[in-house]
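FIELD: query
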Amino acid sequence: MKKAFLYKMKGAVALTLAMSMFCPQVFAREALSAEEQGVQAAPVVELTEEEKAAMVIPVLTFEEALRKAKANSATLKDYEDLTEVLREERNDQIDDLGTLKTPTYEYKKWVNFSTWAKQAQVFATKMEQKSTSLQKELTNLTLEVGVKSSFVDILGQQDQIALAKMNADMQQKLYEQAQVKHRLGMLSKYGTGGLDEKRIAAEQAKNNVALAEAQLAQTYTNFNRLLGAKEDQRYELVYDVDYAPYDIGRPLDMYISDKMNNDDLSLKLMELSVEAAKFTTNYLPDEVPAGVTDPYDKDDRNQYGLDSAERSLKTAKQAKESAIQNTYLQIKQLETMRDSAEADLKKAQTTYRMVEVNYQAGNVTKTALEQAKMGVISAENALKTNAYNHDMLVFTFENPTLLQ
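FIELD: result
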């Protein structure tokens, strides 16, 4: 026994000596640089400024997005150019004809041909100026609602994707758990709650994520086209909506009357059409030179045009009044729904806190905790969606031109 122990001691000493001789060389070699060891180090790749910029997601405010949309709008540029052309044309008329007082044309009136020709020329230019100004204003309003809608859609879809990904992860875990139970003979492959059902649920949840991401990509494509940016550009959108119950501050009928008479661009354009038809029908030359068509020869056609324009305006006003009333009701309905959404959020938060306590005590699984957390996020998303929809409805209510 002593001999065997002696041999073991000798072996240990020999090993210690070998290590003391070998290790310094190893440590010294590790201390050498890669170049000194003859090893070629991997080259460091420097990114270009463009590549660095591409990796940064730019912050985009609503105001900046609207500015970009207006700068990119060919329609708006056309109206701006036409405004300048008409301004110069009107100045030329003033130089050639002087300042002419607009004649009355509420009833049939005949004047000499020269006066009629001058007034008709000036009237046409003035009407086109008014129409162009309204169309320009309408284009600006359309761009603004387009940008608002894009912001709301993108932010809402991003929230949906985040929740869908959480659900997909959850369904995948449940499926993996079901696979284990199935292998142990604890779960059937078929039937309610079976392995196949878990598999289908996991696949469907994954597909929902892909579909939501595809929808977001399309929304971004449309948004970037509106801004004149690259279609694959992404942003960190800054869009804060401060929710508050809406108060018009006066009786609804007074509000509607004021909006229809002063703020509705579509009705103003139709009113211009009525004015143009009145002028054509009622303001006439008494004698027409040879070779010139007498406007009175088309009196029946002109009168029909006037009657039709007036009927269309009346119908549009009635429809607009109903649209404004309905929009106001929708705003109030959203405010009522918000009360329910806030209650749902409080309930989800309470449930999550209870599950969290039980999870810490070991009474429920982590899956149950994650499901409760998803319930809170879903309720928060519903509340944000309510605020976004409320904001959009108030915007259209205050700009009835957008209502059909």
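FIELD: remark
Residues 241-404 form a domain with the Outer membrane efflux proteins (OEP) fold (CATH 1.20.1600.10).
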